[in-house]
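Below is how a single chain appears once it has passed through the pipeline. First comes the sequence as given, then the structure the pipeline wrote out for it. We keep one example in the README because the format questions we get most often are answered faster by looking than by reading.
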Amino acid sequence: MGIDPGTLNMGYGIVEEQDGNRITMIGCGVISAPQKLPVEQRLCLLYEGLLKVIADFRPSEAAVEEPFVAGNARSALAIGRAQAVAILAAAQAKLPVSRYMPTQVKQLVTSYGRSGKDQVRQVVKLQLGVSDLPEASDAADALAVAICHLNQGHMDRVLKRGYQE
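Resulting structure:
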């Protein structure tokens, strides 16, 4: 399960690896909270929504995107709160949690750490073998995080085998 945290919209993407090299999309979507609510109530709604998604799909692992801190500390703090909610929901469900910086996600999905959103979206479509993704960029971003996590797992296993030989 990949999670793209936000305090208004939290994207999630569930993927499954088949045949050792093919990735299939199981589901994706966005959990939304009304902007008019205070942040603590929004975070609570996002947390409850994420717990429901985890209960419905039963992923075996979770990967969460880290906040990008490009000079906007206030925005980074808000996304950090949403990230904490995502990590807490996954931890409560006893899922192992991995965290990835946006550049890591782009690197492990497109092989270029500075890819644009549109390029990431196109590569995600190709890797999943789908003709289209949901309009919500949060869901597509979450799928990219999930694919990144699978790709990182592949690299870790290859490196581990290499060290054992």
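The chain has one domain: 2-164.

See the next section for the split statistics.
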